Design the sequence.
C-alpha cells in the first residue's frame, strides 16, 4: 500500500545540537504534516504544509514541503531534553483523500 | 482542554472476547477517523466516519471489525472475537471539515492500548 519513507529511523544527539529528518514518497502528496508522539500518548501536530515549496516555522521547528511534492523535511534547532520523542511525517495523497499516510517515525534521543 | 477523548486508555481482553473502543471528537468536529499503530510502526488508517455515515472503510479488516458514529454519543470501534494480533494502540482523530478539504487538519486523541491475552 501507500507508504512514506522516513529517515533516519533513530537519532542520538547531544543537547543543543540541530536535528534534521526527512520523508520521501514515490507518489505526489498535496499535504504534509509533522507530528510528535510521546510515550503512551497520541500524535500531536507540530507543523502543517499545504503548498509545494512552502517553508513554515513553529518556534525552533522548521519544515518544508518539497518542490516535487514527493518529500518534506523537518529541522529542529538547538535541541532541548523535551524534544525527545518519536516524530512522524504524514501526508494526504490526493485532493479529497481524507486518510493520512504515515511514515515509520524517527525516534529522537538526547544526551544531556 | 476540549481535545479528542478516548476511553478506555487501556483495555485487556482474552482471545474470543469483544473489545469496544470509544472516541469523542473535539467540540465542533463532526468527522472522525480511526487509526491503528503496532509497536515501533507508524499509524495506519482504518476508517473515516461522519455522523451516522461510514465514508471510507478501506483500511478496516473485512471481518470482526466495525465502526459507527451515531447521531448522539461517541464513535465506537468494535472488535469481535479478538485475537492476539489485534493487540495494538488504536487512535481516533477528528477534524472540523473532513473530506480532505484544503487546510483540514486531524487532531488525535491519546489512544486506547488493547492487549489480547
Sequence:
Amino acid at each position: 500500500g501507500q507508504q512514506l519513507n522516513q529517515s533516519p529511523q533513530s537519532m542520538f544527539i547531544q543537547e543543543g545540537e540541530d536535528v534534521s529528518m526527512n520523508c520521501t514518497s514515490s507518489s505526489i502528496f498535496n499535504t504534509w504534516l509533522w507530528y510528535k508522539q510521546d510515550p503512551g500518548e497520541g500524535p500531536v501536530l507540530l507543523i502543517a504544509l499545504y503548498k509545494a515549496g512552502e517553508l513554515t516555522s513553529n518556534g525552533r521547528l522548521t519544515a518544508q514541503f518539497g518542490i516535487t511534492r514527493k518529500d518534506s523535511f523537518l529541522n529542529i534547532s538547538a535541541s532541548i531534553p523535551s524534544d525527545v520523542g518519536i516524530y512522524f511525517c504524514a501526508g494526504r495523497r490526493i485532493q479529497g483523500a481524507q486518510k493520512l499516510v504515515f511514515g515509520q517515525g524517527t525516534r529522537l534521543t538526547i544526551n544531556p | 482542554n476540549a481535545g479528542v477523548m478516548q476511553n478506555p486508555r487501556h483495555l485487556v481482553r482474552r482471545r474470543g472476547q469483544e473489545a469496544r473502543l470509544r472516541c469523542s471528537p473535539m467540540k465542533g468536529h463532526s468527522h472522525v477517523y480511526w487509526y491503528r499503530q503496532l509497536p515501533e510502526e507508524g499509524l495506519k488508517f482504518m476508517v473515516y466516519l461522519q455522523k451516522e455515515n461510514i465514508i471510507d472503510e478501506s483500511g478496516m479488516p473485512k471481518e470482526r471489525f466495525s465502526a459507527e458514529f451515531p447521531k448522539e454519543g461517541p464513535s465506537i470501534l468494535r472488535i469481535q472475537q479478538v485475537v492476539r494480533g489485534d493487540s495494538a494502540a488504536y487512535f481516533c482523530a477528528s477534524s472540523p471539515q473532513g473530506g480532505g478539504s484544503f487546510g483540514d487538519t486531524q487532531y488525535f486523541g491519546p489512544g486506547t492500548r488493547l492487549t489480547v491475552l
